Amino acid sequence: MKVTEHIKEANGKTQFSFEILPPLKGQHIQSIFDNIDPLMEFKPPFIDVTYHREEYIYKDLGNGLHKKKVVKKRPGTVGICAAIQNKYIVDAIPHLLCGGFTKEDTENFLIDLDFLGIDNVMALRGDAVKSETYFIPEKEGNAYASDLVTQVSQLNDGLYLDDELQNTSPTNFCIGVGAYPEKHMEAPSLDSDIHFLKKKIKNGAGYIVTQMFFDNQKYFDFVKKCRKAGITVPIIPGLKPIATKSQLNIIPHRFHVDLPEALIAEIVKCKDNKEVRKVGIAWCILQSKELQKAGIPILHYYSMGKSDNIYDIAKAVF
Prior knowledge:
Elements: H1 3-10, E1 15-20, H2 30-39, E2 46-49, E3 55-60, E4 66-72, H3 77-88, E5 91-97, H4 103-115, E6 120-124, H5 145-156, E7 174-179, H6 190-202, E8 207-212, H7 216-228, E9 235-239, H8 247-255, H9 261-268, H10 273-293, E10 298-302, H11 308-317
Helix pairs in contact: 4-5, 5-6, 10-11
């Protein structure tokens, strides 16, 4: 079922969803199931599965030559989504990236998803790899998320890259895209960011999921600006509880979001990460209840591969 259909069927009731990371190479899929199992109590309509590009190093062979070696690889998102849908009978939403994919790779990825009965995709540009200062698309790939949305939409219309194909079948994907209440780090302004977000909607995206934020007012202000700009699709808030004191520095640096002074003050007072975890859960519960009271259709949680604190939050909210 499509995300937009889940929202309609909920009839105004706030639903719970979450995002998982694929396990590292060599780990069993049971590691994913162990984190999902407790959260199924809250009947998520869908589960997002991220995609991680391969990372490489160039190993010096000692003769002036270098060998390209994969040093980090997570198992395929397609297979994980199929396993989740088969085990839990719940919609799994794969993340689809521009980075690391040619347009042909993307088409083949989408064909596999369509064969598996996967109805939703999250279309993202993706970040630059460690060897890049700025994002560099594949030579025959999509450069922007709006281009990726266009390709998915064209496949929904039965338009494949090879226009000589006969008797092609259209796909029927519901397309989600990302958004940034505090603006994308590469955007010159929030208004500019919303301008390009609107383009993604025009190209066929049906819903939005935001980057994490810790001040609900920033989400409410962002939604207001989007509505004023003519964006009418659902805007699902992304939430994450802080779990360690080091995240006071890591989160603003890596995700370019601000932390409220009140939250910072509470975490600074903590003696250890056990206390930080309690503060993070309590803060996220307050955020969740305020958003729930405002009638937000779905609250989406970034689990980062661990479900224990997400469970505690969901238990208090849903």
